[in-house]
């Protein structure tokens, strides 16, 4: 009977995924708490054929080049793969896989939570309860803004962007988007395409960032971009923290040029600029876009399917990164 493949699993996965992992593989784990240092990941990867990682494990070129020779596949339990130097992996002949689709709805739901939380001043309102400062019901206190009839600009109408658009329409929002190329009619579904980012910004009462982090999109929401938004716009980011220039965003939030922001992701997370914590008009969450039981199990299972296909199946992963 062939021995099960040996893999390094960087994190503890949801229960059903751990049960399956233990049945199908021999497991190695890095020591200590996440985020794991590259040297710990490399030590745990010794003698392995595959790696199962998450967005917290940064696999840069140097780490990929230092991986033991037996590694054949890196499966990330995430749709985003900006934490992996894919070019370096390809140069070593490694397969990289991700987990698209299964987290689309959970992340789109969370994006609407950010939007509503920012528009309806949820952070300030929750503080009234938490700090026992709630006085009488007031006709003039805690007034947010309606989101219906406002224009939602989506930067990146992919799977998650399109799911955000469907939800926003149900709230009565008019949906606009910018992609380099116009989306297929079924994806667009009535959303209005802008062939330039500037065109999108000019009409975005609410700007939702749903683009991947790439060399082209990093820092794309800078001072110049923010100045093109309508006065009092709302910024939503459920994609990646490095799409925005933090100084510019914080300045716009402090001045009121941005009415509010709903942010689930931060450059350098889990550290974040403390001003995001302090500003009353920032509704911030700790990168929980895909954090539902069903979604995390589905993500873990898809990552395992990919490892199994490469290491114990026909060698072809289900969802290789493109
Ligand atoms: C992803 O999958 O890329 C998310 O950011 C983590 O859920």
TrEMBL record:
Instruction: Name the CDD domains on file.
Output: GDH
Q: Where is the D-isomer specific 2-hydroxyacid dehydrogenase NAD-binding domain?
A: 113-289
Look up keyword Oxidoreductase and say if it applies.
yes
Which UniProt keywords are present, listed alphabetically?
NAD, Oxidoreductase
Q: Name one GO cellular component term.
A: cytosol
InterPro entries, alphabetized: D-isomer_2-hydroxyacid_DH (IPR050223), D-isomer_2_OHA_DH_cat_dom (IPR006139), D-isomer_DH_CS (IPR029753), D-isomer_DH_CS1 (IPR029752), D-isomer_DH_NAD-bd (IPR006140), NAD(P)-bd_dom_sf (IPR036291)
Superkingdom: Bacteria
Q: Which residues form the D-isomer specific 2-hydroxyacid dehydrogenase catalytic domain?
A: 38-318
Q: Name one GO molecular function term.
A: hydroxypyruvate reductase [NAD(P)H] activity
Q: Which Pfam families match?
A: 2-Hacid_dh, 2-Hacid_dh_C
Please report which protein family the annotation says this sequence is part of. Answer: Belongs to the D-isomer specific 2-hydroxyacid dehydrogenase family.
Q: What is this protein called?
A: D-glycerate dehydrogenase
């Amino acid at each position: 009977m062939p021995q099960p493949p040996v893999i390094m699993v960087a994190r503890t996965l949801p229960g059903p995924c751990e049960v399956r992992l233990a049945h199908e593989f021999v497991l190695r784990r890095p020591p200590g708490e996440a985020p794991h240092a590259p040297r710990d990941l490399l030590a745990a990867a010794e003698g392995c054929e595959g790696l199962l990682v998450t967005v917290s494990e940064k696999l840069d070129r140097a780490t990929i080049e230092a991986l033991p020779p037996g590694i054949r596949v890196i499966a990330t339990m995430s749709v985003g793969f900006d934490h992996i130097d894919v070019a370096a992996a390809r140069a070593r002949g490694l397969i990289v896989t991700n987990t698209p689709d299964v987290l689309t709805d959970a992340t789109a739901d969370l994006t609407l939570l950010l939007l509503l939380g920012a528009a309806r001043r949820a952070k300030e309102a929750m503080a009234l309860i938490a700090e026992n400062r709630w006085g009488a019901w007031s006709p003039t206190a805690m007034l947010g803004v309606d989101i219906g009839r406002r224009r939602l600009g989506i930067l990146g109408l992919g799977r998650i962007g399109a799911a955000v658009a469907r939800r926003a329409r149900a709230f009565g929002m008019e949906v606009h988007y910018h992609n380099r190329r116009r989306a297929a009619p079924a994806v667009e579904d009535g959303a209005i395409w802008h062939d330039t980012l500037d065109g999108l910004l000019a009409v975005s009462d609410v700007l939702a960032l749903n683009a991947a982090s790439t060399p082209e999109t990093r820092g794309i929401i800078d001072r110049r971009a923010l100045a093109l938004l309508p006065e009092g716009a709302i910024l939503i980011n459920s994609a990646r923290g490095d799409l925005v220039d933090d100084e510019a965003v914080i300045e716009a939030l402090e001045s009121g040029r941005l009415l509010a922001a709903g942010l689930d992701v931060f450059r350098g997370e889990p550290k974040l600029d403390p001003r995001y914590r302090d500003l009353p008009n920032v509704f911030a969450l700790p990168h929980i876009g895909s954090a539902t039981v069903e979604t995390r199990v589905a993500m873990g299972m898809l990552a395992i399917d990919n490892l199994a296909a490469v290491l114990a199946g026909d060698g072809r992963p289900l969802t290789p990164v493109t």
